[in-house]
Amino acid sequence: MVNTTKKIKIGNKVIGGNSPILVQSMCNTLTKDARQTINQIHELEDAGCEIIRVSVPDKKSLNALKEIKDNISIPLVADIHFNHKLAVDSARYADKLRINPGNIGSKENVLAVIKAAKDSNIPIRIGVNLASIEKDLLAYKNKAEAMVESALRRIKIFEKADFYDVVLSLKASDIKTTIDAYKLVSEKTDYPLHIGITEAGTSFSGTIKSSIGLGHLLLNNIGDTIRVSLSAHPAEEVRVGFEILKSLGLRKHGVTITSCPTCARAHIDIIVLSKKLEELTSSIKKPAHIALMGCEVNGPGESVKADIGISGGKPKSVLYKNGKILKKVDEKDIIDSVLKEIS
Ligand code: SF4
Question: To test the ligand 1 pocket, which listed residue (258, 259, 262, 305) has its Cβ within 8 A of the most ligand atoms?
Fold first, then answer.
């Protein structure tokens, strides 16, 4: 299916249209501590993060932006609430601004931010959040419609100011409202959409909620960049983001492991082996597909579809490479053999 959203440039990356869906995250360091923030961004770059956002809650954080920007290689997004002056000043250093029109103040404030972004030739994400929607829209019974109405009102201000370099997000902490809002807004505008389930929770529950919400939207061809919000290290958000995109066949990134749940037929300890393999291949960025299967029931079938496959057997398991049997290996040698073939 063709994605018809507008293309928007964010630093050295592009989102929208049929561009790859980019995975982004947000630092949880203090932005004013430039060194710590740069270190975390480097960690996230290693994990594959493609756009990074930092909060700019005060002047000290603003002052750190230049140093941060100069020391990283992915686009930097400045996230500003309440204080439009910080947004205006951030435009000099950031590759994109993210503001919540619900809390940035008067129309004049918004226009000042738009002017600053225009002068710096950077886009703005209009982040509508149900929790900070305009008062008159709170009366809407349908919360998704209220969020979309809020977004459309804001877009009008931007367009009237002749500013079209816009990315949109509409977030609510419940999945259904978020999905409905994105579906509705995607019918009404062609601005690229940043999608995510906000305040999704811990690694475990947040991963489930995000997978359901983002999965549904992405399968409906909605979403140009994703952020998985987790109460966890942001590298975990990046990992989950890629897993969601990989599982839908939308991106190729790093190692994907297909492994069976095991049962009484299993000849090898799939649970231990798959966990070990996942850990040992987590830093590989080159796309590769490994199948790790317990027995001959589904082992050969999955193994021939993967780049490297193991079909568990006794006394030895069968190692496949590119759809062909390569050799037989003892259980104790499976990990080393797979790693050798993948490198
Ligand atoms: Fe059980 Fe074999 Fe299926 Fe794994 S592949 S779940 S061991 S039948």
Answer: 262
